[in-house]
């Protein structure tokens, strides 16, 4: 095999593909061939680096130089300057801010330097379509170890030692769940990978599936051996076509290499993996609904017990784990449970991937040890608030998480601490909000999502979320009463208490936490008929100041509902009853004579 | 592709495929070749070819080859640096393709600096 002195890694995650990385890959290959460097420089498509906002991302090894927002036109300069002459292309380097010098090296960028990558260890580093690159990174060594040296019970003991807990939201101890399934009576068992990833804004599972599909297969194989299952399903949302393609490719390759199929490694253990495309509903991510969906039924949750460990898919003992949970398994087996348990807090071990979004400088995926504070994640890794504005709140745990405030900035992140504060770990979504965000509006936004996704099977969730939403609408349009706040809280607690599945049990979280930490904002909407953040349009008033008005009439011309009257003699006025608060007059007025309150 | 039947099979594949990712790991001996206009004019391309050929011939996986721009010693080009753990950065000047096997064998592999070609040292 030829020795390649340089490797050019081009991100092929969904984020970078949509910003044009495939064109960059082609252009780089062309320029490299034109310079006759194709025998010494290799171009490698990889999975996601997590910094999607800066994409398309290109990393050049051996130096580890990190280029961002690369276009096909930049290919020539990268090849001629960097690869041929050894001069970095300064203008494409990552910059902490516009005024600062570029940071040449991957590992020196603050976004990466604080990360500890276990679940994401291969993402952005290997070519996911090449099983041998995975093997070079110790891939399938854990499977080999398990099949040749360990009894199923040893495997479960190792996972228990690691302290790994479910990364899909619930945080249930993984080893214990495996033990329940292993002990369940029955000779046919299943394992399932939950790749439905329904939380808006979360994309860690997609990145792992796209960037390191073999890690999932290896995790499932190890779990299958430990629990006595010979078949696995990966339930992947249909909106992830690239992930499905990479998984299919990985399954084919694993079969070719004898790592899936009958009598793997001559151990007598046989295992098969199927992919099932999701049906597009949020609730299908709930484990019992998911299994119903695989069986071809309508995806609706059912009461537990019986738990899947005893009666799961086709009524057989089944273990279901999240993508990120499975991705951690091979490394835990290779390095030992104690190694994993050495990271994190007392009860929340290891690392967790977070998806940073909202009003934050660096959006993207970060994997950090449990126990880091929210401040470290938002300010050190995330680079602080966009536009130098003030931090107001962070919504943790997806649509059913909760809003935490400035007083929680130094809270170490763990399952326990978040739950105590009224939020949840959830899948690890972290939406950052600045001072211009209205918290009532935020609660309404998330509730709109969960309300629409409620499957309707149980009354508290179906009717309760609907009534809560009506009350929030009433408040944001200035028609709420203080009694509504009490009713809202009471109803929220009831929905939380009485719903059948996790959807209803957590949907009230955004309402409850904003009521708890931002009650004054609710009261301002009700008592003063005012939205302090200026976000609720129904409470906005556009008023023309007669002193400043020069009677030009441009506002009246701009108004789409003709509710502004006046003429050359009389100052213009807005009919508040007809005004739709579109802001067109406000934008148009050349004399700044219109106030927005 | 032969099916993997044992730990040995897996190790074999891993060994054979090592080059696939070897340029991406850190902490290895580095060979840096000056590829500024001056270097190229003095024949740095041929030196590069010789380095790559020699490494391949010897099956050396844990050496990275980098390029660098002009460092202002144009009269000494082609320049070749070897950076080996514990020995700092040694710069060789007026390197001919014929010198390459010696530098690789003595310095890169065995850690013995090829004194007659050295023009600079740095930590
Ligand atoms: C409404 C709802 C949606 C869910 N969506 C997901 C999902 O998209 N992905 C996921 O892994 N778990 C999801 N879960 C959690 C699963 O029910 C289950 O707890 C999880 O797959 C178990 O795996 P873990 O122990 O590895 O976390 C959801 C739960 C509820 C109630």
Walk me through what this model shows.
Chain A is an alpha/beta fold. Chain A folds into five domains: 107 residues, Glutaredoxin, CATH 3.40.30; 211 residues, Rossmann fold (3-Layer(aba) Sandwich); 84 residues, Ubiquitin-like (UB roll) (Roll); 89 residues, NADH-ubiquinone oxidoreductase 51kDa subunit, iron-sulphur binding domain (de novo design (two linked rop proteins)); 56 residues, Alpha-Beta Plaits. Helices cover 39% and strands 15% of the residues of chain A. In chain A, a hairpin with a 4-residue loop joins strand 7 and strand 8. The radius of gyration of chain A is 27 Å and the shape is globular. Chain B has a single domain, classed as 3-Layer(aba) Sandwich (Glutaredoxin). With 123 residues, chain B is α+β, with helices and mostly antiparallel strands. The longest helix of chain B has 15 residues. In chain B, strand 3 and strand 4 form a beta hairpin. Helix content of chain B is 37%, strand content 22%. The site of flavin mononucleotide has 22 residues of chain A, from strand 9 and helix 20.
SSE layout:
The complex is a heterodimer of chains A (597) and B (123).
Chain A lengths: L5 E6 L2 H5 L2 H14 L6 E6 L11 E4 L3 E3 L7 H10 L25 H4 L17 H6 L4 H9 L2 H11 L11 H10 L6 E6 L8 H8 L1 H15 L3 E6 L4 H16 L4 E4 L4 E9 L9 H8 L23 E5 H13 L1 H5 L9 E8 L5 E6 L4 H8 L9 E6 L5 E4 L9 H7 L7 E6 L4 H15 L5 H18 L5 H17 L3 H5 L2 H9 L1 H9 L14 E3 L9 H5 L5 E2 L7 E2 L9 H5 L5 E3 L1
Helix pairs in contact in A: 2-3, 6-10, 6-13, 7-8, 7-10, 9-10, 9-11, 10-13, 17-18, 17-21, 18-19, 19-21
Chain B lengths: L6 H10 L2 H4 L6 E6 L2 H6 L1 H15 L4 E6 L11 E5 L3 E5 L7 H10 L8 E5 L1
Bound molecules: flavin mononucleotide.
Flavin mononucleotide binds next to strand 9 and helix 20 of chain A.
